[in-house]
Fold each of these.
Amino acid sequence: MSAVFDVLSWVLLLAGSFFVFTGAVGLLRLPEFFTRIHSAGVTDTLGAGLMLAGMLLQAGSWTVAAKLILIFLFMMITGPTSTHALAKAALHGKLTPTTAGKEGVKS
């Protein structure tokens, strides 16, 4: 049974690493601010969640598992909240989302 948990843990850790890496590439390659924060916010939240789930399967004690669950809950609250705050601040600063493939400009 332990071997099944080890394999599942590695699958979750690798999947989470893939999503975090994809988010980093999206942060560098996407054309404008709003698509960049969307890429970073969504993939980092999902990637971190999968990685924490993989670590949870390897947790040796209940205290470690409880701490990992608390970290997961904290990340599920703060990740989307910070992404939303960044988008609202950009809109408040008059940065407009693009629709025609050009960078948003201040009015």
Note: Residues 2-92 form one domain.
Amino acid sequence: MKFVKALGVMLLLAAAYVGGYGNGRWYGLKEPGKTGSQSTRKVLYWVDPMHPSYTSDKPGIAPDCNMPLEPVYADEKKLEPGVVQISPERQQLIGVRYGIAEISGGSETIIAPGKVAYDERGVVNVNAKVDGWVEKVFVDFVGKPVEKGQPLLTVYSPEMLATQQELLLAGQGQQVMRHSPIAEAKDHAAALVEAARRRLELWDFSPAQIDELLRTRKPVKSFTVYAPASGVVTERKAYENMRVTPEVTLYTLTDLSRIWVLADLYEHDAPKIRVGQTAIIRAAYGNGRAIRARVNFIAPQMNAETRTLQVRLDADNPGQILKPEMFVEVEFRLGLGRRLTVPSDAVLHSGMKQTVFVDAGEGKLLARDVSAGESHDGRTEILRGIKEGERVVTSGNFLIDSESKLRAASLGPGEEKKSEEKKPAAPAPGHVHDD
């Protein structure tokens, strides 16, 4: 009897258990700790909140950060294409920060290496205009500064001496023919004097020297060559007793009060420089003294070896602080004007594509394709794709981009996705998806 009673009790307990399980399983009773919406949502897979590329087919702990894996539900595919939804708590975990797209001005500084060169417009060659021989040399070394009109050397020229004698004879004949009744003879004598005088003037005899010659009637054996301009002797070929001809350059004088600077610009900087643009020249010594310069020429072609474009600037050289062949630093300051910019960290570069994640509210982040311009001072110009005032992600966007690509791959095109959902196979635990 006791056995029968005990058996009845066991049957009642079994019926109660089955009824309770069925009630919970088939009649929608909630399991402890779960909401009704969560129990009915279909979980596609679980993902590491810190590294979205790590997925698993069952809940667990992420191996890298020891955080609980988060479920990715099937109904999340209702989000618009390119939208990722991340809760504020999770954004805080992955370090999401924001910046603002705004209109701002600014400036850009381009630093280019340069080399000092002679201003070719200030280079003067000194030649003797007649054949002869050098007698005395007054300027006898390269680098010596000279002033305009300073004597450089004396030259003995038989041809010059003969021309002086011709002038004296012509002058004497003119005096004789002064009282001649034949007008043509007077004119001929005057023409001879003028021709000899003109010839001496072309050989750099001054009118005062010619008048002195006619007054004293004593031709000079040698003549003096004077500096035609002020400058520094950069080349000397005049030595005593050497024979000279008009083709021989005796001295080269260079004015160093103004110089040229040859700067080399890289290809991406070359289009920004224009003729007439100003720059600052700084030498390695002199406490970095700044000298203002101006672009006066841009080379028509690139240097094939260095892939640089040469730009020429001219500048004053006070105190001749800049020496030819000296290396200097050329600084171009460019105004950029007002334009739309975002923090440079907001722009993701992937090949030919640039992406910015825009805050769409309620934890939604929209991947926006943009056209990025130049970057300066931590901000990047946006030519297309962003509006002023929009909030953009500046930190954590690499993780957001990974999750966006992961979800796009898993939620894929409709029909192809549906066929994949019918397959019983699931990703293996700990499987990592490659983007």
Note: Residues 11-38, 414-435 have pLDDT under 50 and may be disordered.
